[in-house]
Amino acid sequence: MTDQHKSTAGHLLSLFTILIWGTTFISTKILLTDFTPVEILFFRFLIGYAVLFLLYPRPIRTKTFKEELLFISAGLCGVTLYFLIENIALTYTLASHVGVIVSIAPFFTAVLAHFFLEGEKLNVQFMIGFALALTGIVLIGFNGSLLQLNPVGDLLAFLAPAVWAVYSVLMRKISGLNHHTIGSTRTVFFYGLLFMLPVLFFHKFNFDLDRFHDISNVTNLLYLAFGASAICFVTWNLAVGILGAIKTSVYIYMVPVISVAASALILHEQITWATLAGTFLTLTGSYISERKHSTIGKRELRKTIRNT
């Protein structure tokens, strides 16, 4: 496969992943009627881990504890913390709010990349775009009325992309270790599930299986487990290995468009002028801030591909 074909494949993988992830807020919001945030998280990744194990049962053998620590940290950030924070945020605020706010993940990714990855430096253009996006987030949070502000949910939603940025940088480093992508993703899931166990203990996990008699619960949970977890984590990690953390994260800008539209169509959430204006400013600010990352030199692309 040529460099151009691999680059195209990376873009297609990113687009596919974001189309699925942009609607996960809807499924989670529906499941929150009968499940707690922790229960959704545990069932989702337990099923996802089982699927990945069936696809690639061979263990990943790291050479040093430092390499193993990358997987441990990725499991903590990308599975346990990110999705737990996001699911809890959905219990306090609208799904459309969460979908838009988490779209600022590329900003946090760029900040971390500035310090931990080569060739990524912050500039004035980045700060201007960041200011526009933050203005958009404020509009979405207020939703046209001071009385509709959900400070706890919106602040949690703001914290989630910061955690995801750490995961993105970690996966970029993991992709350079040349392990099998499915095996690497499964290992990350394993540590994520491991970190969930204490949380399950303190939140009184409910083993009641009657909830699974509801077809809506089953279909939404399987959608999160098979599609959004087992499949999409693999496709996203493949894309990061091909395109890099920053360029792949640009696709997260599409999340608010997908989630806001889906929230209106499926959950019948009201879309106000503030939500629309906030969405526009968030996307515009994100684009301006990250525009310099929209192109990648051939030399860097070839280096990235050789490391996958």
TrEMBL record:
Domain of life (superkingdom): Bacteria
One Pfam entry name: EamA
Annotated ranges, domain EamA: 9-141, 153-288
InterPro entries named in the record: AA-Vitamin_Transporters, EamA_dom, EmrE-like
Intracellular or extracellular location(s): Cell membrane
Gene Ontology, cellular component aspect: plasma membrane
Membrane-spanning segments: 12-32, 38-56, 68-85, 97-117, 124-146, 152-170, 182-201, 221-243, 250-267, 273-289
Membrane topology: Multi-pass membrane protein
Key words of the record: Cell membrane, Membrane, Transmembrane, Transmembrane helix
Family of this protein: Belongs to the EamA transporter family.
PANTHER family for this protein: INNER MEMBRANE TRANSPORTER, S-ADENOSYLMETHIONINE_S-ADENOSYLHOMOCYSTEINE TRANSPORTER
Protein name, per record: DMT family transporter
